[in-house]
Each structure stands twice: as C-alpha cells, then as structure tokens.
Amino acid sequence: MKNATTLIYDGSFNGFLTAIYVAFEEKLNLADIQKNSQGQNGLFSETETIFTHVEKAKRVWNGIRNKSYNAISNVYFAFLSETEGIEYMLYTYIKKLMAQKEKQVDFSDDTVLYIAQLARKVGREKHRMEAFVRFQLTKDNIYFANIEPDFDVLPLISKHFRNRYADQQWLIYDVKRRYGIYYDGEGVEIVSLNLEEIHYNRICKSKVFTEGEHDYQGLWNNYFKSTHIKSRINRKLHTQHIPKRYWKYLSEKKEAV
User: Fold this and answer.
1) How many structural domains are present in the chain?
2) pLDDT surpasses 80 at 210
3) Which of 94, 197, 201, 244 is found 20 to 30 A from 43 (Cα to Cα)?
4) Same domain for 90 and 175?
5) Which of 146, 147, 141 is nearest to 213 (CA)?
C-alpha cells in the first residue's frame, strides 16, 4: 500500500484543481489537500508541494463540467466557502462524480448533499452582496465600497458590478480578507490593500470622500427614515432580509449602527 500523501497548494482555485489533477494522475493515496499558509498536519503522511499549472487545472475543470454542469458550479462555490477541510471534501466529491456512469448528481450521498448545500449558502451570500453594496465617491473619483461577507464571494460578484457600473471606476474591498476588486473602466483586477481605516457608513465625515458624497448620503438616510411607517415595522422580517451584520456598511442604517 502506498504511503499517504498530503498535497500543498498555493490557495488559488487553479492551484486546487492542479492538486486534484496530480492526485488522479499519480493515483495517490491522498491524506489531505492543504493551502501552503496552513500548518501542515499529518504525522503519518508525506507532503508534496504542487505548483499551479493552468492547463492541468483546465483539464480537471472540463472533466467535471462534462460530467455535470451543476457540479462545476457546486465545486467552485463550495471552494469559496473557505470551510475547514473543504479541499479534501471536494476531492471526495469529484472522485465520486467521476466514478458514476450517468451524468446526474447523487444527492443520496452525504458528501454530495453537503457540497450542494454549502454551494447554495455561498450563492445566497453572493446575491446579498450584489444587493447590499453601497458605493461612496472618493476624492480620487473612484466609487468605493466595503463588504464583509461570510464567504469569499468577491470573484462571484465581479461580473454583476462590471456590467451594472461599466461607465464608472469602482473598488469593492473585502474587509475580512484584505483584498478587493478594482474596475478601471476597461477591466477588473484583484488588488491587495491594507487599509489603516475601514470606511464604513458612519455619521461622522471622512476626509476620503467628497463633500457632495456626504450630502448625498445624508439625503438618502433622511429619505429612508421618512418612508418608514413605524406602525408597520416588522423587525423580525426586516433583519431576516437585511441581517444586522451588514448594517454598518449600509448608508440608510447610519443611526442604527
């Protein structure tokens, strides 16, 4: 019996797919797949560092897609969940998918069902972020927004905002993961930032944003308050649709934060 092997990859999705390719190609007795930033566990397994290879990643991507178009979405969304141990769970999921003859996903399998449920959670967070992003105009003429999602959904919302705000420069920054996506009017790129001050929607003014932006935010906040009918407020339903963890980044919630 082969010794168990733990594959170490760079943390990217292409790196993960490359690790899957190596695991199948070399018929490894796989112990785990871990990011290189993780403490490498496994006293009884050897480690092998995997270097991202785009062509190998594409072969795995196409292989999964040929088996099931829904499965490729599930794999990508579940990967972005950042759930502990998700790499090995996805390896098991892909292994079972490739082994079956039909092109239907077997939801009676616990692993398959778990990955599908996890992907749906990430999908819901994606839609929330598309609805809850609030841009503010900076003095550099860039529309800036903070988000703090439960999952790493920035790669999933890029297309939505590129299409919706194609005539503006904008930057959406993930506070939790300390990186953002920046649109310069032509394309979107990933940027790494280490902001000393997190610019959420406070009542006090920030020097980063234009005076006109502060005035606009005040008008929007007043409009939001004036349209509320206190006798019809359903706070439970309201927080169900707009969870409190998002409030500090919503301009209409300044006084509630």
Assistant:
1) 2
2) no
3) 94
4) no
5) 141
- Structural domain for 179, as ranges: 133-256
3-class secondary structure per residue, the chain: CCCEEEEEECCCHHHHHHHHHHHHHCCCEEEEEEECCCCCCCCCCEEEECCCCHHHHHHHHHHHHHHCHHHHHHHHHHHCCCCCCHHHHHHHHHHHHHHCCCCCCCCCCHHHHHHHHHHHHHHHHHHHHHHHCCCEEECCCCEEEEECCCCCCHHHHHHHHHHHCCCCCEEEEECCCCEEEEECCCCEEEEECCCCCCCCCCCCCCCCECHHHHHHHHHHHHHHHHCCCHHHCCHHHHHHHCCHHHHHHCHHHHHHC
**Nearest CA to 206 among 165, 151, 149, 146?**
146
Residue 22 lies in a domain: yes
Show Cβ contacts of residue 26 under 8 Å, excluding neighbours closer than 6 positions. none
64 in the same domain as 179: no
Tell whether 183 is covered by a domain: yes
The answer on 224 and 143 residing in a single domain is yes
Q: Which amino acid is it at 146?
A: N
In the block, residue with structure tokens 């290879």 = 53
pTM: 0.81
Indicate whether 194 pLDDT > 70.
yes
